[in-house]
């Protein structure tokens, strides 16, 4: 995980993530990205969830 990626995610926290009032948005972003990376590397890491992979040309209708 790169500092640039963490910094960008910290700057772009979702509204529901901002509501929590994190004292350290950077640490919050790092935790979010870490969990996301784990789910991507191991789709079974989160019970009752799955990772759906799509290409940019594939859209939902």
Q: What low-confidence regions span 5 or more consecutive residues with pLDDT below 50?
A: none
Q: What is the mean predicted local confidence, pLDDT?
A: 79
N-to-C series of helices and strands: HHH
**What is the overall shape?**
globular
Estimated radius of gyration: 14 Å
Give helix % range.
40-55%
Give the helix/strand class. Answer: mainly alpha
Could you please describe the fold and organization of this structure?
The protein is mostly helical. It has one domain (3-45). The protein is built from 3 helices and no strands. α1 (3-11) crosses α3 (25-41). The model has no long low-confidence stretch (mean pLDDT 79). Residues 1-61 are annotated as: Disordered. Residues 50-61 have a biased composition (Basic and acidic residues).
Can you give me a brief rundown of this structure?
The chain has 61 residues and is an all-alpha fold. The chain contains three helices and no strands.
Topology:
Blueprint: H1 3-11, H2 15-18, H3 25-41
Q: Keyphrases for this structure?
A:
61 residues; mainly alpha; 3 helices; 0% strand
